[in-house]
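Progress note, sequence design subtask.
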C-alpha cells in the first residue's frame, strides 16, 4: 500500500474537565468524526493502518527540555484542581490525567509515519492525532499543543535518517510559532506558514508572525510567514500562495553555495543535464550573457505538513472560505516535491463536518485519486495579493525566483492596520457558536456538490501499441484496445491529409476513444501515441472532438512543432499554450506562445508562474498535453509538467506523444498521470536573462485578464 494512516484510539482520552470556553473546542470528537468519515468513504481500508506508539522521552528530548518533559509526566498524578491550576500557567492549554500518554502517542505517530515513508514501506501518509503540536515550544505548552509533533519528526528524520533538507508546510489558520522558534536558525529546514494575522490582532498576537520575520543567523530566508490580514480567504488565495511563494522556494535556490551555470549546446532531450553540462558555455550568446548568481538548490528530501483544517470553510476559528477540495489540490501540489514523500500530521480543525471532509480530501490526494474541481471563480482577493507581495518582497534578498517581481511599492501588512475592525470572537462564546451555526448552514450545499463528483472507475488508460512491449507500468493501468467507431474516425480523418494513412487513422481512433472515456467520466487520464507526421492533425482533431462532445473549457498545452489551427475559434472555450514558439507573445487572451526555456530554472519559472496560474484561472474540463516532434523536453520536465497540470484539471489529462518517443518517456508519463511523483529534475541551472524577460513580458500582457497571474494587489 502506498499511503499510511497512523492512529490510536487512546488519543481520544484527553478532554476538558472544567468549564473553559476557549479550550472546549479541542475535543475527542475531532478524531472520532474524522476517522468515521474515512471509514464511511472506504478510505481507511485503502490505507496501510499503523497503530501509533508512544514517543520515548529521548525522542521527545530532540525538541523539548528534560524539565518540561518531567512536568508533563507529572500531570498523570494530579487532581482536577491541580490540573486546572497548572493549565492556567500556559496560554490556551488544558491538562488531563491522560495528557502525557496521548501527547506521547501523537508525537510517536509522527515518528512512525516518517520511518515508514523514509524506509520505503509506504509512499506517504497521514497521522490522525491529538493533541496538536505546532504551537508547543521547547519548555512550554501552548495553544492546545503539548509536544511539537512535526518538529520532533523533522529532528528524527535528520538524526536517524540523515536528511539534510526538510520542508515543513503549516496550513493551519494559526501561526505555528513553536516550529518557527525551533528551526529559525536552521537552513536545513524550510518552514512555510500561512495564518490569520489581522495586522497582529489575531492569536497568538506576535510580531514575529509577520512577513518580515524570515529567520535568524544562518537560517535567514528559511522561515516564510504569509499573514492573512482579512478573513474570508478562499481557494484562489490559497492556491496563489502556493504558486507564487511556496513552490518557487521549494524548487528554487538560495543565494549561498556552489554555482551551476547554464550554457548553450545541444543536450540529450531524454535526460536532465549533468553538473558539467550545466557549467558549459557554448556559442556567442552564452559568452555574451552576464555571469549567474551563485546558487544552491534546496530541493527537499521530505515534506512534513502541519495539517490544520481550521483554515477550511465553516471553521469559526479561521472564518475562511477554502473548500475541502482545496486541500486535495494543495496536497497534490506538494506531492511533486521530494519524490512524493509527504507526511501530514493533524493540527487544528474545530468544525467537525468541515474537518472530516477536508481530512478525506487530503487522504484521497495522498492515495493518488484525482482532486475534485475547485468551485467558484479563481480570483485572489486584494488583501491576499498584498500579503503575497509582502512576503515575496521580504524574501527577495534570499531567493532568486522572488527577485522577478514588479517594483510597485506595497505597505508591510503590519503597518497598514485598518481602523475599527472588531476583535475576533472568543472560542466557545455566544458569537463563536453563532458563527459556527451559520457556517454549518453555508457549508451544507457545498458538501452536497462535493459528493456529486465521483472518482472515475479507471484512473489511467494507455493506447501505446508501438511502445507497449517495452513499457513498465503500474499493474492497474488499463491497456486500452478499443477505438472510436470506424465511420466517425474516418470522418474526422478526412479533415487532414496527414491522417490519410491507415496507421494514422488507427492511432486517431484510439485517441478519440480515450478522450471520450475521460469526458464520460469512465477514465480519469490517458496516454496515447500518433505517428509524428500526423501529430499536429491529431491534436487539432482531438481539440475539436472534445468541444463537440461537450467540453466547455479545453486547455491544450502544445510542446514542439504543433501550431494552433488558424481556424480554431477564439471564443473562450479553448486556451492554447504553444511552447517552443519563436517568441513570447500573447496573441489573444486564449492563445499564448512562448519559447522553450533553456534551463531547469527557466522551465520551473514558466511552469509555476505562467502555465499553472493560467490553468487554474481557466479551470479546464480537460487538458490535452501534446508533446510533438522536436518538443525538446527532458523526460523529467515532461513528467513534472504532466503532474502539475493533473491538479487543476482534476486528473482529466490526455497526453499525446509521437510514436517515435522512447518507452522511458511514455512510462514516466503514465506513472505520473496515475498519481505517482515525478522524478527529480536533476542539477539546478538558473534561468537565463532572456527567459526571465520573456516571462515578465507575458505576465504583464496577461495579468489584467488572468488574475491568478498577479503577485501584487493592483494599485
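Output:
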Amino acid at each position: 500500500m502506498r499511503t499510511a494512516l497512523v492512529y490510536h484510539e487512546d488519543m481520544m482520552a484527553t478532554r476538558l474537565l472544567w468549564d473553559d470556553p476557549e479550550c472546549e473546542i479541542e475535543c475527542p470528537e475531532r478524531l472520532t468524526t474524522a476517522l468515521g468519515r474515512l471509514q464511511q468513504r472506504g478510505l481507511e481500508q485503502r490505507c496501510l493502518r499503523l497503530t501509533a506508539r508512544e514517543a520515548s522521552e529521548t525522542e521527545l528530548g530532540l525538541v523539548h527540555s528534560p524539565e518540561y518533559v518531567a512536568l508533563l509526566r507529572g500531570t498523570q498524578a494530579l487532581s482536577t484542581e491541580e490540573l486546572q491550576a497548572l493549565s492556567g500557567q500556559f496560554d490556551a492549554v488544558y491538562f488531563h490525567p491522560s495528557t502525557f500518554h496521548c501527547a506521547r502517542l501523537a508525537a510517536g505517530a509522527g515518528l512512525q509515519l516518517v520511518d515508514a515513508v523514509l524506509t520505503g514501506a509506504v509512499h506517504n501518509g497521514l497521522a490522525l492525532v491529538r493533541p496538536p503540536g505546532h504551537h508547543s515550544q521547547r519548555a512550554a505548552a501552548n495553544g492546545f499543543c503539548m509536544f511539537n509533533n512535526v518538529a520532533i519528526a523533522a529532528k528524527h528524520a535528520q538524526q536517524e535518517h540523515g536528511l539534510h533538507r526538510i520542508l515543513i508546510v503549516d496550513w493551519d489558520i494559526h501561526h505555528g510559532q513553536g516550529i518557527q522558534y525551533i528551526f529559525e536558525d536552521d537552513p536545513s529546514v524550510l518552514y512555510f506558514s500561512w495564518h490569520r494575522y489581522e495586522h497582529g490582532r489575531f492569536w497568538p498576537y506576535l510580531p514575529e508572525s509577520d512577513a518580515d520575520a524570515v529567520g535568524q543567523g544562518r537560517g535567514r530566508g528559511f522561515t516564510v510567514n504569509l499573514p492573512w490580514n482579512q478573513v474570508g480567504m478562499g481557494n484562489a488565495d490559497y492556491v496563489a500562495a502556493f504558486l507564487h511563494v511556496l513552490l518557487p522556494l521549494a524548487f528554487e535556490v538560495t543565494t549561498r553555495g556552489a554555482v551551476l551555470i547554464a550554457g548553450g549546446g545541444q543536450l540529450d532531450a531524454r535526460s536532465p543535464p549533468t553538473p558539467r553540462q550545466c557549467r558549459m558555455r557554448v556559442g556567442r550568446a552564452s559568452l555574451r550573457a552576464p555571469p549567474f548568481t551563485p546558487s544552491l538548490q534546496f530541493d527537499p528530501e521530505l515534506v512534513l505538513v502541519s495539517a490544520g483544517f481550521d483554515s477550511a470553510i465553516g471553521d469559526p476559528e479561521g472564518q475562511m472560505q477554502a473548500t475541502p477540495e482545496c486541500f486535495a489540490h494543495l496536497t497534490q501540489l506538494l506531492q511533486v516535491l521530494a519524490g512524493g514523500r509527504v507526511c501530514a500530521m493533524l493540527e487544528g480543525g474545530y468544525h467537525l463536518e468541515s474537518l472530516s471532509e477536508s481530512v478525506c480530501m487530503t487522504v484521497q490526494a495522498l492515495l493518488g485519486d484525482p482532486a475534485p474541481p475547485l468551485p467558484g471563480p479563481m480570483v485572489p482577493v486584494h488583501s491576499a495579493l498584498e500579503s503575497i507581495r509582502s512576503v515575496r518582497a521580504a524574501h527577495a534578498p534570499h531567493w532568486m525566483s522572488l527577485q522577478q517581481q514588479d517594483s510597485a511599492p506595497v505597505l508591510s501588512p503590519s503597518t497598514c492596520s485598518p481602523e475599527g475592525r472588531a476583535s475576533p470572537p472568543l472560542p466557545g462564546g455566544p458569537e463563536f457558536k453563532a458563527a459556527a451555526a451559520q457556517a454549518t448552514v453555508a457549508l451544507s450545499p457545498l458538501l452536497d456538490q462535493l459528493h456529486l463528483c465521483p472518482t472515475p472507475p479507471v484512473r489511467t488508460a494507455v493506447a501505446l501499441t508501438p511502445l507497449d512491449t517495452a513499457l513498465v507500468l503500474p499493474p492497474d493501468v488499463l491497456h486500452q484496445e478499443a477505438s472510436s467507431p470506424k465511420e466517425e474516425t474516418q470522418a474526422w480523418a478526412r479533415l487532414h491529409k496527414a491522417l490519410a494513412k491507415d496507421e494514422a487513422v488507427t492511432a486517431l481512433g484510439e485517441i478519440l476513444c480515450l478522450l471520450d472515456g475521460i469526458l464520460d467520466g469512465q477514465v480519469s487520464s490517458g496516454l496515447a501515441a500518433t505517428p509524428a507526421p500526423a501529430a499536429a492533425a491529431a491534436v487539432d482533431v482531438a481539440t475539436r472532438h472534445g468541444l463537440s462532445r461537450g467540453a466547455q473549457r479545453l486547455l491544450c498545452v502544445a510542446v514542439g512543432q504543433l501550431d494552433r489551427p488558424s481556424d480554431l475559434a477564439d471564443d473562450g472555450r479553448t486556451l492554447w499554450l504553444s511552447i517552443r514558439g519563436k517568441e513570447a507573445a500573447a496573441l489573444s487572451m486564449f492563445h499564448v506562445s512562448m519559447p522553450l526555456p533553456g534551463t531547469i530554472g527557466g522551465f520551473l519559472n514558466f511552469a509555476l508562474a505562467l502555465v499553472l496560474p493560467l490553468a487554474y484561472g481557466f479551470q479546464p474540463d480537460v487538458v490535452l498535453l501534446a508533446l510533438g516532434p522536436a518538443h525538446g523536453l527532458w523526460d523529467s520536465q515532461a513528467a513534472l509538467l504532466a503532474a502539475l497540470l493533473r491538479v487543476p484539471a482534476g486528473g482529466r489529462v490526455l497526453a499525446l506523444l509521437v510514436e517515435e518517443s522512447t518507452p522511458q518517456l511514455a512510462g514516466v508519463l503514465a506513472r505520473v498521470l496515475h498519481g505517482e511523483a515525478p522524478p527529480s529534475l536533476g542539477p539546478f541551472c538558473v534561468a537565463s536573462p532572456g527567459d526571465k524577460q520573456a516571462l515578465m513580458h507575458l505576465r504583464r500582457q496577461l495579468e489584467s485578464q488572468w488574475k491568478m497571474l498577479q503577485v501584487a494587489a493592483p494599485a
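DSSP finds 22 helices and 19 strands in the chain. Work on this subtask will continue into the next period as scheduled.
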